[in-house]
Design brief:
This protein has about 450 residues and is an alpha/beta fold. Helix content is about 40%, strand content about 15%. It contains 15 helices and 17 strands. The strands form 4 sheets. It has a 7-stranded mixed sheet, sandwiched between helices. The longest helix has 22 residues. The radius of gyration is 22 Å and the shape is globular. About 50% of the residues are buried.
Amino acid sequence: TWGVFFSMAFTRLSTVARAARFASSGKSAKYDEVVQLRRKYLSPSLLTFEAFDTPLVLERGQMQYMWDSEGNKYIDLLGQNLCISVGHCHPKVVKAAVDQMNKLPHCTTMYYHEEPAKLGKELVEKMPPHPSGEDWVVHLVNDGSEAVDLAIQMARVYTSRPEVIGLHKAYHGLHGYAAAVTAIGKATQPAYASMFSGISHLMPNNLELLENHLKFTTGGKVAAIIAEPLQGYGGIFPLNDGYLREAFNLVQAHGGVTIADEVQTGYNRCGESFWGFQMKHNNVVPDMITIAKGMGNGVGIIGAVICRRKIAEAFTTKMFFNTYGCNPVAAAAARAVIRVMDEEKILDNCSNMGALFKKNLTKLCEDLPMVLRQARGSGLFQGLEISGKTQEESGRNAVELHRRLLSYGVVLGRGSAAGNVFRVQPPMCIQAHDVQKVCDSIEDVARKWKAEKNL
């Protein structure tokens, strides 16, 4: 069923039909103008990644809340694809960016500037020591896909090997090698097989499969393995206790590099530690990590690779830089995010609100199993799987329930190959009364659905 739906976006109507059918929505003139301009002037490929058949036009945000073009208020349970970590328009992050913008909006990487240099230091200070004793260094880029693409290139150059292992149901991005190691739904374009050779995808939580692959498929010569510490778009699937640690150990024993993709799971998101690889069931230190999204809180368009110094040094055989990689405005925003996380005890809030979500959603699954199948995940990185007789049916049910929750002022994401998992990944400033409102709304929608369908 991998090819049916991708993430929250692939809705019931074809992209061509949706584009053609829109005339007037009956909403405000501003709403109609925005929708018509987007569909006329932006690429049709954007229609493969839309949340609703009838578009939601957003206008402003404040902390965990958003307002649409019609003035309706919503709790943002998606954090705008996890980019909003400490809150929409957080005043400290906005101020840091604006202050820097008023001084020097950009300087290219060939010149030195204090903001990216200090950001590098602060990121390294968040890292545990590497078992090798090597220093950590940071390479700043623009987003998560670019970070993953760079990390794989660096691993291949460092090891002088081509073979890279990813996991089924993994999502790492849609550009370059990030697309190559992604293994879910419509993320794989027909050209990728020829563009990205030497990429394998293995089922997670199977160490014997990995070991046999290393011995007999790569001949013991592997460049890297990349894994999310807790799988996200694939459906919010935690890895088995100890799997990531043992998998990384196996790859390192064969001379490969280990990469933890923390683009979604890092920055306290999983409610247990700053990084997902530090969670108790993982408890491992990788050779490289990739970060982005909440790193800039939607203000700084930024990502990074953090890696062992020797891996970075191996990549100095040719010139390499990113035009906006060391942008001082993005770096200033990212530094402010780290300060806010420490000052406002974001990890504690993420843990507490995550526990409240887990308790309430698990209870709803017990009470309404015919509608809500399973709650899983950790911290504010959780998923709620919708029931159905088949994956396809559960995906269709999720589309309708997702739409109905809008009228309650709740914006969720959808994930998994079938699009049947609600993503609960709000800004990490969310409060208990918001959590209760969300859970009450889900319960009311689910009970009405149960009665309507005679379940």
